[in-house]
Specification:
The protein has about 240 residues and is mostly beta strands. The chain has one domain.
Length: about 240
């Protein structure tokens, strides 16, 4: 009887660990008017390759008028991979702890008219997003809502005429934002203690085109901070003084 009980316990333990297996999706897509819906629920979900590891297939998506609706629910989930996308929208939701979102958008191709709506609920998440940088990236609208502690966000928007609105509630969050080129607006609502916020705005030239009201490339920040022991550093420069 004791041997039988030991065997049952061993089998039960194996079943518990098997439930933590990763869900993995790798995409290589070229084409316009893609609508992509993905729901990943569990531990260690992966969309794209891991840390841009060259030994694995990368998530490479190229097209125009793309729509992304991605939900990851659980801990230690990951999104990696480059995108080239004009006139595209991104609706992303992360629920859980220790998740990673690391993407290059438009580094090797145009990324005009991007619209992001991102919601995060959890602790110790890491985001590293680069928008534009090399190729054309005009008219960016990025909304970020975060509830959680000890998150790290490194967001580089090298995009003409961009708007970034972010609302963060939680303690010990580290936010580093770069807005470079064109006219920039940033609205900040931060509630929580021991926050570390760094904002760099480097204005450039206005984007020509119908409906563009930019007369001079202004940089604007509107802040509402409710925090003890916060550290905030803001640098605003015009292009001629870009260091």
């Amino acid at each position: 009887m004791k041997k039988l009980i030991s065997l049952i316990l061993l089998l039960s333990t194996s079943i518990v660990f098997a439930a933590t297996d990763d869900n993995e999706i790798r995409i290589d897509q070229t084409g316009d008017t893609l609508t992509l819906y993905i729901d990943q629920v569990g531990f260690g979900n992966k969309l794209g390759n891991v840390n841009f590891n060259s030994s694995q297939d990368k998530m490479v998506i190229t097209g125009t008028t793309l729509t992304f609706d991605i939900d990851q629910i659980g801990n230690q989930n990951q999104i990696f991979g480059p995108l080239i996308a004009d006139t595209s929208s991104f609706d992303l939701s992360f629920t859980g702890d220790s998740n990673i979102w690391d993407q290059n958008i438009g580094a090797s191709g145009s990324a005009d008219d991007s619209d992001y709506d991102v919601a995060v609920a959890g602790d110790s998440n890491t985001f590293d997003i680069d928008q534009g940088k090399v190729s054309s990236a005009e008219r960016l609208d990025f909304d970020l809502d975060v509830i959680g502690n000890s998150n790290v966000f490194d967001l580089d928007f090298e995009s003409d005429d961009d708007t970034f609105d972010w609302d963060v509630t939680g303690n010990s969050n580290n936010i580093n934002v770069l807005q470079k080129d064109g006219e920039q607006t940033q609205t900040v609502d931060y509630t929580g203690d021991s926050g570390d916020i760094d904002i760099n705005q480097i204005s450039g030239t206005c984007v020509s085109g119908a409906g563009n009201s930019c007369a001079t490339p202004n940089a604007t920040i509107i802040m509402d901070i409710d925090s003890d022991n916060a550290t905030i550093q803001i640098n605003q420069k015009d292009a001629s003084n870009d260091s």
